[in-house]
Write a structure and sequence with these properties.
Layout (H helix, E strand, L loop, with lengths): L1 H53 L8 H22 L1 E2 L3 E2 L8 H27 L2 H7 L3 H13 L5 H23 L5 H24 L7 H22 L2 H7 L6 H27 L2 H22 L6 H28 L13
Antiparallel strand pairs: 1-2
Helix pairs in contact: 1-3, 1-10, 1-11, 2-8, 2-10, 3-7, 3-8, 4-11, 5-7, 6-12, 10-11, 11-12
């Protein structure tokens, strides 16, 4: 009886190991597919937006109107998913409505930051090349550290501050090299800096707003797009785009609307795959993936637009990319250390 029992245990252990290997293999395949989709959708979205904002085919000098329409597309998709409850077998869309007084009062500050953030990002992309877009918006990490200290009184480690210093150095080196190449846009760079600042503020206020929507990121995205449709209207008027819109002669073109809807779908898709990537991996892996994606995006852009860049220009990109990756790694180590001790609620980072 003993040999039979031992053999049964051995078979059971072997079966469990096979099941575990199969489960790990399935998980790695899922992660690979999600990360690949994130890369593809993110890079395609940047190129599609660049085409819409400054392409000769569209030729509509109304970047905020284009961004506003993308919000309408995203809102429409969210609205339909809210009514259907999501996509069966893929994900469940949380229930909720933005047309509630209490919800509006609590979420609209986040929506204002969301509106300014996506507006400044698209304005930056309109005036700078895709290859320089990452450098133009590379100060987000620096603003995160500064705002964490100013608003939350949170001290950052010296090595993380050193990473920020190298990011700033890489940013100014990139600006200098872009200027020497004759392709530098001061307006586009300013919009990039504003986009980085508002993204940092948006991160803080998003963390504060999530409890009001039961920690549902999709619900917050739904509300943000709903309110942004309204918030964009005064910005469009103040930017003087109504003249360009009124005089535009291709609103009857099917191709124009196909391009506009495609841009809106891409905007929605990048939001979905960003959330999905964080869900199947971790925030740190998402940051590293985003950094690596930015590197690939820069290389693709220089080849696509046949751009020739200097060694120092590439050095600025490498400096920013490596510093951002090291910062993410150092923060992960610090978070692991902090997780082993009890931290008072008011000392926890909201970023």
């Amino acid at each position: 009886m003993t040999p039979i029992t031992g053999k049964c245990k051995e078979n059971t252990l072997e079966s469990k190991m096979k099941d575990r290997k199969s489960e790990l293999c399935s998980r790695y395949i899922k992660i690979f597919v999600v990360v690949s989709c994130y890369w593809i959708v993110s890079i395609v979205t940047v190129f599609v937006n660049k085409y819409l904002l400054s392409g000769a085919s569209v030729n509509l000098e109304a970047p905020l109107f284009i961004t506003w329409f993308q919000c309408i597309v995203s809102f429409t998709i969210c609205f339909c998913l809210s009514k259907t409850g999501g996509i069966k077998g893929i994900f469940v869309f949380p229930k909720g409505t933005p047309w509630n007084k209490d919800t509006f009062i609590k979420i609209v500050p986040v929506s204002i930051l969301f509106t300014v953030m996506i507006a400044s990002n698209n304005l930056c992309l309109k005036y700078v090349g895709v290859s320089f877009y990452y450098i133009g918006r590379s100060l987000t990490t620096v603003f995160n550290v500064a705002l964490s200290w100013l608003l939350l009184k949170q001290v950052t480690s010296k090595r993380c501050i050193l990473c920020c210093a190298f990011i700033i150095l890489g940013f100014f080196l990139g600006v200098d090299q872009e200027s020497l190449l004759g392709s530098f846009s001061l307006v586009g760079t300013i919009y990039g800096v504003i986009g980085s600042l508002t993204l940092s503020l948006y991160s803080i206020y998003t963390k504060r707003a999530l409890p009001f929507v039961n920690q549902e990121v999709w619900l917050l995205s739904y509300y943000n797009n709903a309110y942004s449709i309204i918030l964009f209207i005064p910005f469009i008027i103040l930017n003087g785009e109504y003249t360009a819109i009124w005089n535009y002669g291709h609103f009857d073109s099917t191709m124009f609307w196909v391009q506009m809807v495609t841009g809106g779908i891409c905007g929605f898709a990048i939001g979905y795959f960003t959330s999905l990537q964080i869900q199947v991996t971790s925030p740190l892996t998402h940051n590293i993936s985003g950094t690596a994606k930015a590197c690939a995006q820069t290389v693709i852009a220089t080849q696509w637009y046949s751009e020739s860049k200097s060694v120092l220009w590439w050095s600025s990109n490498i400096m920013v990319l490596l510093s951002s990756a090291l910062y993410a790694r150092f923060k992960q180590v610090e978070m692991q250390v902090n997780s082993r001790r009890i931290v008072p609620e008011d000392e926890k980072s909201l970023i």
